[in-house]
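Hi R.,

Here are the chain sequences for the assembly we discussed:
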Amino acid sequence: MTNTWQDIKNANVVVVMGGNAAEAHPCGFKWVIEAKIENGAKLVVVDPRFTRTASVADYYAPIRPGTDIAFLNGVIRYLLEKDAIQHEYVRSYTNAGLIVKEGYSFQDGLFSGYNEEKHTYDKSSWDYELDEKGFAKSDDTWQDPRCVINLLKQHVSRYTPEMVSRICGTPQDKFLHVCELMASTAAPDKAMTSLFALGWTQHSVGSQNIRTMAMVQLLLGNIGVAGGGMNALRGHSNIQGLTDVGLLSNLMPGYMTLPNDKDADLDTYMSTKLFKPLRPGQTSYWQNYRKFFVSFQKAMFGDAATQENNWAYDWLPKLDIPLYDIIKAFEMMNNGQMNGYICQGFNPLQAFPDRGRTRRGLSKLKFLVTMDPLDTETSRFWQDFGPQNPAKPSEIQTEVFQLPTTCFAEENGSLVNSARWLQWHWKAADGPGEAKSDIWIMTGIYHRLRELYRKEGGAFPDPLLNVTWKYTNPVDPDPEELAKEMNGRALADLTDATTGAVTKAGTLLDGFAQLRDDGTTASGCWIFSGCFTEKGNQMARRDATDPREQGIAPNWAWAWPANRRILYNRASADPEGKPWNPAKPVISWNGTRWVGIDTPDYGPTVKPSDGVGPFIMNAEGMGRLFARDQMGDGPFPEHYEPLESPVDNVLHPKVKSNPVARVFPDDRAMFGDAKSFPYVATTYRLTEHFHFWTKHALINAILQPEEFVEIGEALAKEKGIAQGGWVKVSSKRGEVVCKAYVTKRIKPLTVDGKPTHVIGVPLHWGFTGQARKGYGANTLTPAVGDANTQTPEFKAFLVNVEKTSAPPMTA
Amino acid sequence: MSDLQSQDYIRRSASTMTPPSARSHEDEVAKLIDVSRCIGCKACQSACMEWNDLRQEVGHFEGSYQNPNDLSPSVWTLMKFAEYENEQGNLEWLIRKDGCMHCEDPGCLKACPAPGAIVQYANGIVDFISDKCIGCGYCVKGCPFDIPRISKTDHKSYKCTLCSDRVTVGLEPACVKACPTGAIMFGTKADMKHQAAERIVDLKSRGFDKAGLYDPAEVGGTHVMYVLHHADKPSLYSGLPDKPGISPMVEAWKGVMKPLALAGIALATVVGFFHYMIKGPNEVTEADEAEGARALDETEKTP
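And here is the predicted structure of the full complex:
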């Protein structure tokens, strides 16, 4: 979230699209209700299904799964055509006036630089025209046809209301009414919040879905303000923490990137991280990258990381391919290139696309280690559970080690919520049976591996042998010690250049501003710096005082970065520093410094007259309507059909789907066509369950006991499917036999003149736990990854549905 | 469920004694369910199961999000989901938390023949006192809302207690505490009516002209009230009665029939006494037991 949960109450319009906040985030959804009751907000829901969120909405518009970009590009076209944008904001805070260099183009569905063989883009033309000093040229009058706003106008001109309706199936009047509601927040004192989740990410165009709404929000002046923002509602209590500490194959903590094998030495690596300002006088905060990086290396390798060995740069792994994501990992298992798998707090058999592919991959391993508080499907992949898991144990050689772990309530630690708060939690009970904490288990593995390397050597033992491990209890480090390590310490006496204040060696740092690139500071995760200081555990704070009753309680837990609750909050004030909305100020300029209810996302004493842009993480200091080379699939968002789609791409039939989506050849062979699989399916969660966990809890199992799919009345009638009757839902990859919920909440959509039916597939049931056995939605889903994040396309694919009789077991 | 003491009662089933009304200074309480901000998450159902320690067996999918599929001795509250296409052709998903309405004039209490098995407290809560319940099922017939359910295990009647055990010690009912959107509120009946009035103004401003409070006069008002977007058509909400009335049979039993029936019972006692004196005690045979069990089983199959 750019903003924070409580801040939703400040919105005038709440748009839930690409998510189902009431269903999947019922507790946080109270703030939407608060916005409605206390702020007179309108709640708008755009979704293929009439959801629980829609049940309390002021306005609902249906949309075909996988067409959000067409809808939102249509919104952008509407805003530009009606001139319903916040002019001063767009002019001063976005790159609308910057000039794009010759060479950039978009034609017939492809951006300039496409390589047909490699399915990638050469992105060098996706950039600004630079002047002789290396600064981006601009035209503040917006007359130049190459300035961003004009290219954008041209790009979205194809997305007329007729076209939007033709692609999305949304009736034109409903689309236009949503446009009108959104446009009402272009007024400087009005705000719209965008609440979204996996309904946007789980597409081959997932990142661009989100980006398109971010552009809408920039045009409306809704980023950085109270009640505004792009708010990703996280589906797991700590998934925000997972990305923050970089638990992805190509990341390091704090969103630093792991080197690849072209980055032979530190200087080469750093040369791609300089982020020199692209406009005069800009901040470009990533220029501090080296400080964050060196401090991380000091936290990792301690005294062994020195100036002489380039801060142990050689001990970091170098990627030989862009990344090893989950789709890739199982591709490698299936090809025999990966033969051991440690699966910590993860249930891939139930969670990853194309379940059969996952089962085959696990069956080829030499060993599988699962670490989980629950008896997961993955741990039991080898066991025959009937049609829901038709495994043949006699044919599977994989040795499985099932290590039971404690859960969050059985250990101390912190969780990072959607609003980036690190909240400390305390152990409430001992774990059952032989359960051990993840820390204890991983520490054990580490010590044994290190011992093996010590005794037997090995190809490259240095990284493992040089990791620093100075914990009070080296076999079971205390969570507080680990938290302090992430916060960071001074390794020598540090003198502040401006104030002269001295931070003694050994003391905990107050924040990342103190980090140095000379080896005198250590911090395991720079964005967490400030969470555990000499004043104590900031994450454990529980003071709910909210000075302006505006949803910002700065002394409740601690938010990264720098305890900031609203990112980009400099943009909540006009260029002179006066709040756009005087009734809901966040920060303002008092003549000498920035003051307000939140930590300024800006130099605290940088004068408005200095003209530093509010988006200090960007080299030009501006919000990007044109993304430069930051996206894999284009600097402007474009509508591409899902990899499995029932219709052609009416905008450019030759380029139907995202040309740079992640697809392996074997998986492409597993795509179905609309002839055999004529219906669009989408998967989702229900309130009663959390993923595949709560089916292990009796109460949740009682509240939603059995697998089902949702089918509209029209299709059910056509297919002779009765309410609660048995159906077989099949894709090219597998089939699910379950009951049907025949509902008015899914209506056929008219797409390009033809009726299109949507099938809803909730995903909770598997073959372990207390609920009834189910096949799992991922039996059906394709292995397709988003072009930027490789997130699988779980939200739009093709199936067939047929009436069937009750299986013998349940008759 | 909870047995407080006689001084807490203002009404007591099948009793001629007048409760002392020692708590007449107490305010009447009410639970207000604002249907317009309920998201149907079932946190209330879950909390009810937790607090009252109830676990229905894991059921089946029955063609709706409604689960378990009905109220039962282990299910005291239940979210009901109705898909309604309004006059403009737009869909509304009307979600209502069902459970005991705690009528001011409780049909169950009127119908109950077991002395003290159903009581009403000064705060308005209607409670079942299990050890006095004879499992006859008259309360089921007497309830205009089809709420009480008889247990097959102990042949007692069960329903929501409005968490009388919590309310007595100054806590809100468990469902109220758990509700994430504040759709379930609890307080004095006067305060809840005031709250409802504010909500109704908001709903009217959003185009629900017929928004209103469900506090039906037919049962003297209720201690569980709803804010409805369509107060003119309560039955849209999964059959919430438009005009809930206590069955005429029950009214008759309490009115005209009661003295006659009492006379009948007295006569039966007298006849029984003479039968005993003349024929001696009845012996229960195994056949009688089997026949009794079969009869009981049959009555339980019919709701």
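The first strand of chain A starts at residue 13 and ends at 17. The CA atoms of residues 316 and 618 of chain A lie 27 Å apart.

Let me know if anything looks off.

Best,
T.
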